[in-house]
Design brief:
By secondary structure, the protein is α/β, with parallel strands linked by helices. It is built from 13 helices and eight strands. Bound molecules: dihydroflavine-adenine dinucleotide (FDA).
Length: about 300
Amino acid sequence: MFRSVILAAARSPRVERLVSTAPVTRDVVRRFVAGTAIADALRVTRSLVDEGLTVSLDHLGEDCHLAEDAVRARDEYLRLLQALSDGGLTTAAEVSVKLSALGQRFDEQMAYEHARAICAAAEDVGTTVTLDMEDHTTTDSTLQILAELRKDFPRTGAVVQAYLRRTEADCRELATPGSRVRLCKGAYSEPESVAYQSDLDVDKSYVRCLNILMSGEGYPMVATHDPRLIAIAQDRARWFDRSPDEFEFQMLYGVRPAEQRRLAAAGYTVRVYVAYGTQWYGYLMRRIAERPANLAFFLRALRSTS
Ligand code: FDA
């Protein structure tokens, strides 16, 4: 309920204007976003890698409506991958890509071709790409594009969202040898017809999906900050005889950083999802929607500009 209200408000241009210009916003953005430029992304990546963590970098931007913006997004990823390579960071850092930033909503073929160029560049410098998953209207298209990309770039990562009723079946399809699959709860506002609505049902679905991925032949990427699910994932790894290098934990930059370091120190691979860029609004609103405590910021931001 809380989440749907915030995510619905987030679609209002007026709210976007208010939040973007509120004085308190900058501090909150800084907590979740590495900065605006590739240099910022690299600086944060290096400091995380120095602490024993790995990284997936996301250039912020989604739902582009113009072909030239899609080209700009692709070119940014190509520059980012070159910079990671020049910085000697490609063994520890990969990239996460949203197909909607590459024009998926108005030209799927173009989005596929741009994603292909990014996968080829990633392979050239010795790293990988994961395709973020967006709202449910894009799931089929994203999985189809993933399947095409995997013909030439089999290590391209998939993302599945436990809140979708379809996801257990998708996990079964995806739990194949070498298949990198990130399991998350899901961050969008989705109707009951396609998604579980209660936290308990989402958590139960997460565990069922985790069982499929952990017992399967792929490489599970357990994306959650939820302490119970982290403990269950550790348990399942023991049940299914997976060593710490046969799956990984993933968390967002700025969320539970001490837990990220604790797990890394215990020998697990922990990948931090680091977002950078100027188009932080949608990303920030999803982070606020995930945690009622962040509502205080949201209200302060509105009050201070009205
Ligand atoms: P939950 O939301 O229940 O949080 C558990 C605990 O974690 C909270 O009690 C709190 O302590 C802490 N926490 C969680 N979120 C917080 C926040 N924003 N601020 C402060 N504390 C917070 N979604 C999607 O739809 N498509 C995608 O491609 C991805 N990709 C992705 C990559 C990675 C690496 C992660 C970690 C997450 C995603 N997500 C995503 C987001 C995901 O779907 C989900 O919305 C968030 O991870 C929050 O869910 P949790 O599993 O952490 O549980």
